[in-house]
Task: structure prediction
Amino acid sequence: MEEAHRSRCPINLTLEILGDKWTLLVLRDMIFGGRRHFRELLRLDEGIASNVLADRLKTLVAEDLLTKADDPTHKQKAIYSLTEKAIALVPVLAQIGAWGVKWLPVSEELSIRAKLLEKGGPLLWDQLMAELRAEHLGTLDHRAKRNTAAVRAKLQKAYEETVRRKGLRGQRGPRIPQLGQGRPRTRT
Result:
């Protein structure tokens, strides 16, 4: 039996999957932060509740945006992987970030990645998607052969440099989260 949808409009159907407050943030942290475990994702900078995260992950798996498997390094952990369907959202997230930089009161350090993605355009997005395919799908193409984490590492380095530079100007900035780590905290 087919599910009832408000309409068959592609924007409506997309929003039925991605249009809540948390789903794109979970995908953001998997794509740009390298987070793959429940506890890593629970530390979203915006503070998601565990029951909400569990619900979003379940939905993302059901909608074939993520896969869930037992983590071979730990018997009690699951590891989430992006599917091709989720990886294809990189250009969408890049455009959402670019729009936010242009129209919203973003912070310099949290917008640097969006600025670089906008500047790099489709070529950079394709490189990032190739890296994600290598990491999550086990496929390696010519764009990812040299360094399977080059784009994410470049984005992380730019973030860290921005935080350091702001700190040098006497401003207290957040702790620099490494890929896969939790919410930044204010330095004391």
